[in-house]
Design goal:
Blueprint: H1 2-45, H2 54-76, H3 91-122, H4 136-139, H5 141-163, H6 167-173, H7 177-184
């Protein structure tokens, strides 16, 4: 069990670091996107001369923000879920159900990662309409978001496996300094 604890704590530190970067990148993207769209509105309705690149740039920032925020939502458990009966289950049954569900999510994320990487690679030959970049840089947000989400679900599976342990052994493994760090971020 010492190996499980080491793996969990190492993965938790990695995830917290990556998710912290993702959080601030998402916040920055929202702020810049808001400014770009505001610039578009001012130029269009005040100066009667719309900028060609602002609508496309705002759309691409929205795509990046969505996929970068995905693992954060998964980590905090804030995604849409039907959990109206899970509190009725026994503790061990609930953890077994979590392991099965997280494993299924991992399978879906694996296929999404594979397909999105191929999609992004094909975008390397397609240029954006009004920006001097290829679509690869836009589509790259998908495999990054799916990959980070997979790391999160590996950690959640390890946490659920720990939940299957007897209560006294579980209490020894529950020292999670990373959770306090995450709440500070």
């Amino acid at each position: 069990m010492m190996g499980l604890n080491l793996l969990r704590s190492g993965l938790r530190r990695l995830n917290l670091g990556l998710l912290s970067v993702a959080k601030y990148l998402s916040l920055t993207l929202v702020a810049v996107m808001t400014l770009v769209i505001l610039l578009q509105v001012v130029c269009r309705y005040v100066f009667n001369d719309a900028l060609a690149w602002t609508e496309e740039a705002g759309r691409y920032m929205m795509v990046w923000m969505t996929f970068i925020a995905l693992p954060i939502v998964c980590y905090k458990g804030q995604h849409a879920a039907l959990d109206f009966f899970s509190h009725l289950l026994w503790r061990r049954t609930r953890y077994l159900l979590e392991i099965v569900l997280y494993a299924l999510i991992m399978v879906v994320l694996f296929f999404a990662l594979e397909k999105s990487w191929l999609f992004a690679s094909k975008g390397a030959r397609i240029f954006a309409t009004s920006l001097p970049i290829t679509k690869y840089w836009v589509y790259l947000s998908m495999p990054i978001g799916f990959g980070l989400s997979m790391l999160v679900y590996v950690e959640l599976i390890l946490d659920a496996i720990t939940g299957l342990l007897p209560e006294r052994r579980q209490a020894q493994l529950q020292a999670q300094p990373g959770q306090a760090l995450w709440k500070q971020l």
